[in-house]
Amino acid sequence: MAGVDADAVRRMTGALFIERGVRSPGSTRFWGLLVLAAVIASAGVVGDSTATVIGAMIVAPLMTPILGCALALVLARRRQVVRCLLLVTGGAVAVVVIGMLLGWIAAPPDAFASNSQVSSRISPRLIDLLAALATGTVGAFALVRADISDTLPGVAIAISLVPPLAVTGLLLTVHRYHDAGESALLFATNVAAIVATGTVVFLLYGVRAGAEQADLRVGQFRGRTLVAVACVVVLVAVPLTTGTIRVAHDRLLAADARPVAEKWAATGKWQIASVEARNNVVVIGVLGLPPQPAPTALRKALDDHGMRDADLELHLVGGRTHWCPADTDTCTVRKGGSSG
Fold first, then answer.
1. Which of 50, 75, 148, 288 is the most buried (most CB within 10 A)?
2. Quick one: which of 59, 57, 65 has its CA closest to 15?
C-alpha cells in the first residue's frame, strides 16, 4: 500500500485541524454550519421529513473534528487530540440544546410517538456499529486519496451524526429520557467507529512518515493508543448487543400482538393503524368512531395470549392515550404523550 506524501499530509492537517480562535475562518465555518445543520435536522425530525434530515447530514461539519481526532492520535499530538475532542463535545451539546429549543416550540401532542425519524434512531444495534465502521473507513480513505474525495458527500449522508443529537434534544423536552439516551448512544457509536477506522487507515497509509517529510511535529506513537481506541469500540458494542437482542424480542412481541389487537378492534368495527413494541411495551394505534372497544378487554386478551409481562400503550384517534401496565386489569388515560 503506497504511503501518502508530504503534500497530502499538509492537505489533511489543513482540512481536519480547525484553527484556534473563535473568529478564525475554520472556527466560524465550523460553528456556523453546525448551528444551521442542527436547526435543519431538528426541523426535519419535527416535520418527519427524510429529505430535510439528509440535507442536515450534508451540511453538518462534525466529521471534521472527529477525523481530526484520529489524525492527531496517529501523529501523537496530545493537545490537538484534546482540542478535537472538545470541539466534538461542544458541538454535540450545542446540537442537543438547539433540538431542545425547537422541541419546546414544536413538540407534537403524541411526543414523537409516531415519528419515523425518531423511531429509526432510538434502537441502535450492532449493525449500526458495522455500518459506522465501514462508513468511517470510507471517509478516512477519501481524505487520504484526493482522487476519490468526491465520495465525501455520500459519506456525510451515510454516517448519522447531527440527526441523533437533534433527536436527543427533542426527546428530552418531552421527557422520553431513555429514548434520548439511546439516540445519544447512536451518536457515540458513530464517533467511536470513525475515530477507530480513521486511526487504522491513517496508520496503514503511512501518514506519520508523510508528516515527518513535511516537517510537521510528530510525537511518539504507542501501541496503547490502539488498545484504548479498540476498548472504546468494545465498550460501545456492549449496549449495542443488548439493544440488538431487545429489538429482536420487540419484533416478535409486535408480531404476536397484532392478531390479538385486530380481533379486539373488530368487535367495535375499529381499525388497527399500527402495532409496535418498544422496550417490552406494546404500542398500538387505533382508528374508528365512537363507541370505542374497551382497552381493558385488549389488556386481558394480551394476557391470555402469553403477553402478561408486556405493558400496553394504546393510542386512540383524538390524541388520547390509554396506559395499561403489565400484570394489572386497569387502564389510565393520558392526554397525549408517550411512555418513551
1. 75
2. 65
